[in-house]
């Protein structure tokens, strides 16, 4: 009987895996209880959504997964409502999809060539949320974080030093 290298290396290694203490609901205060601001929900999903997604998750082959079109659920009855919910100006391309089936079967290249969605980041964002919807998660808006102006204070100080050297301050 042959064993793989991975199974033999894991067999002799002591188990160091432990469940993450974040959001663990342990009775009473423990040293591993996180502050309440660490226990925010990451994803939103309903029980019927997860039940309908279970058949999608059971599909083994890639073509069958690509061809799977989930039924509309909750407040998401059309393509526009999903694109409005995910934000980032995705609703601007909602008119380019002809229907529910077209939205869930369009590939990235067909979105670019046939539908004219040239922004690659937007295409990837839509495709990502489409996959999450197939897996049973409800869309939520994820804002792009604003970039800090890192070097403004440093630039001002450097400029003041230069002006002092030139005798202008």
Helix content: 40-55%
Distance between the termini: 83 Å
Rg over CA atoms, rounded to whole Å, is 25 Å
The total strand number stands at 0
Q: What general outline do the C-alpha atoms trace?
A: elongated
What is the residue-averaged pLDDT?
A: 77
Main sheet characteristics: none
Beta-strand percentage range = under 5%
Number of helices: 8
Uncertain segments are 3-30, 33-40
The topology string of helices and strands comes to HHHHHHHH
Structural class: mainly alpha
Description:
This protein has 169 residues and is an all-alpha fold. It has a domain of 88 residues. The protein is 45% helix and 0% strand. The chain is built from eight helices and no strands. It is found in: Mitochondrion.
Give the helices and strands, then pairings.
Layout lengths: L4 H8 L34 H12 L3 H6 L11 H8 L13 H6 L2 H6 L6 H15 L17 H15 L3
Features:
single chain; 169 residues; mainly alpha; 8 helices; elongated; disordered N terminus; mitochondrion
Structure, briefly:
Keywords: Mitochondrion. With 169 residues, this protein is an all-alpha fold. It is 45% helix and 0% strand.
